[in-house]
Amino acid sequence: MLVVDVCKKLRDFEFAAALEAPCGVTVVVGPSGSGKSTLLRLVAGLLRPDSGSIVLDGRVLADERTFVPPFERNVGMVFQEYALFPHLDVAANVAYGLRARRAAPAEREKLVRRILDRLEIGELRGERVGELSGGQRQRVALARALVIEPAALLLDEPLSALDPLTRARVRDELRAILAGVDVPTLFVTHDQTDRAAFPARVVRIERGRLVAEAS
User: Fold this and answer.
1) Where are the domains of the chain?
2) Is the dihedral of CA 72, 78, 79, 83 positive or negative?
3) Which of 53, 110, 135, 197 is the most exposed place for a label (fewest CB within 10 A)?
4) Which residues share a beta bridge with 188?
């Protein structure tokens, strides 16, 4: 369970919302600039809340006295533009989080091979990410987030960079993958088709406030 109850002031914008996300997908919707990505950045540790707390599976990630840095949170994140390293091949991109955690080389190799095979991109392990299609890059970004066996998964509009035809196919693939990920997963989107494709909880954020939630 992920429990967020925080306030954060960003220039003339204030995010102040509370939500609980159980295991499974929680779709986060709302207009542009409403605070959806701010929520993810707070959970990931890329922003520090001004007040309140973030608790994941009973572990306090942030409150008045505690702030766990991003690399110690065991939270996987897929960014809107994937944020892959163009100078590295697929395997090195996926292994990045494991290296940051100082996993042994043999263990890194085993985990990277396993997740690439699980996402059916094992044959791409030696390819540079700049040579991949949009759907392939999306899988690499997801593999990098999942290889650390995260306690929570954050997806910031992961389909928005794809063309419409690729988006429809990758949406179906992503739905199947996430069905097997039993951790709290926040899926940010502004696309109604994306929202309808996931049989999940939906929360709506407007102007930095959670205004509605439903199954």
Assistant:
1) 1-74+151-215, 86-149
2) positive
3) 110
4) 28, 156
The topology (CATH level 3) of 1-74+151-215 is Rossmann fold (3.40.50)
pLDDT tens-digit series, residues 150-177: 999 999 998 887 888 888 888 888 888 8
| Adjacency order of strands within the sheet including 184-188 | 75-78, 152-156, 184-188, 24-29, 201-206, 209-214
- Mean pLDDT within 92-114: 93
Residue 24, Cβ neighbours under 10 Å: how many? 16
Measured CA to CA, the distance from residue 112 to residue 29 in angstroms comes to 32
CA distances, 40 to each of 77, 95, 115, 145, 173 (Å): 8, 22, 23, 14, 22
Q: Kindly report, residue by residue over 110-142, the tens digit of the pLDDT.
A: 999 999 999 989 999 999 998 898 889 989 999
Q: How far is CA 180 from the centre of its chain?
A: 15
Strands 75-78 and 59-62: unpaired
Which structure tokens are listed for 212?
Answer: 């509605």
